Amino acid sequence: MNAVSDTLKPGTIIQDTYEITKLMGEGGMGATFAGRNLATDHDVAIKVISSSFAGNSRAIDLFKREANLLRTIQHEAVVRYETTLQDKDGRLFLVMELLEGEPLSHYTSQGARLSSDDVLKLGRRLAAGLDAIASVGTVHRDIAPDNIFVPNNDIQSAKLIDFGLASNTFGTEKSILGDDFAGKFSYCAPEQLGLFDGKISTKTDAYALGLVLMKIAGLPVPGEGQGLGAGPARREDLLIPADKVSPALHAVLTELLRADPADRPSPITPLFEGAMADGGQAVPQRSEKTKMAVKGAEKRQSGSRGLLVGGGAVAVLIAGAVGYFAITPNEAPSPTTAVVQGEIGTNALAADDPMTQINALVAEGDDDSLNAAFGALLTLGRDTGTSQETRIKALLMAARMTDPDTHAATPSPFPTPDPGLARRIYNNAAELGSDEAAQAAARLQE
């Protein structure tokens, strides 16, 4: 099976108008290229679906849905749509503005954090984009650090990207995926995990934004890396430690991270604007529920329900007055600081021998345990505080869960193998020095 990049090379002209200049990224369904509009001489990004998916109605619907939604949304905090094309071979192309920079996940993966004031600046920017999305009856459904792009390190120019999983809330509460889960477990709202009747709405994106802002503020995210195990961690309102963030950010996060969607604000831009009044020192109007939660914080903390977010070691933030990121040389925090006590997978990461605990989860064999094990393996593989040998072992085990050659013989949370995902995990292990992983990645590249 040829990859998209094998047939679309730099210099390829699409419909006499767009020239491909370089490959930017490639995944299982297609690839994204940098290109140029020959008529106007401006740079663009070109997303193309693989010909191998041309007969896959679900993949085609996802692609067309993204194009149609982007066409209706015009906002500076949302990636700008240009056009959709189809060539003689039936390949679909989505042409968008070209963004230079990195996704927010590039920074969070290195342990970066922002001051409370800069978190509010980023939040206000993204909130305005989400409100624009909501105004046309659309739910993004996948608000996460890798779908927030930071052009040229400037958080005040951040943009929401990747609308492939978005859904129109008019007439249906399902995405194009039907009843399947859409989004990322680490940053999904309780209703995406079936809680509160599973009703998806524009308030679902508000909750996900709250989790993203927690992450970049240096706070542990309850349920992160635990797959379906994130559900119990988000069954109730999350309490934010008042000593870790400013009062204004504390109030904003508290409102966004209401467990029940009915209790979350909509629209959400006014929440940030109120918080940023008087130079970011103002505290937005709190709901009666917030006031009660703040008063009872100490009591709930001592109640050991595992829902109070605790502080952890984080890299120091250096942020300029205009909100630029600067990553310090400090190592990223150990992911174990983000684990919520009492949830599935927690003991695996906190144990003296996490691989033994992960193997015990795999041996249990149920869906929740396998999801928790897979998430724990990936988290362990990224943990710079863990030995290189253990990190490699964890990544190899995770990759085999989705490798076509080993999937049938390996307990896995995935019903079918995913060679693209397996290759990426193998590559991560190869970067740590694993020859076995490098060979497996090369095999899947063929």
From TrEMBL:
The chain crosses the membrane at residues 307-327. The keyword Ligase does not apply. PROSITE patterns: PROTEIN_KINASE_DOM (PS50011). The keyword Cell inner membrane does not apply. Keywords: ATP-binding, Kinase, Membrane, Nucleotide-binding, Transferase, Transmembrane, Transmembrane helix. InterPro entries: CC_SR_Kinase, Kinase-like_dom_sf, Prot_kinase_dom, Tyr_kinase_cat_dom. Pfam families: Pkinase. Its EC number is 2.7.11.1. GO terms for cellular component: cytoplasm. Residues 18-276 form the Protein kinase domain. One of its GO terms (molecular function) is protein tyrosine kinase activity. This is Serine/threonine-protein kinase. It comes from Yoonia algicola.
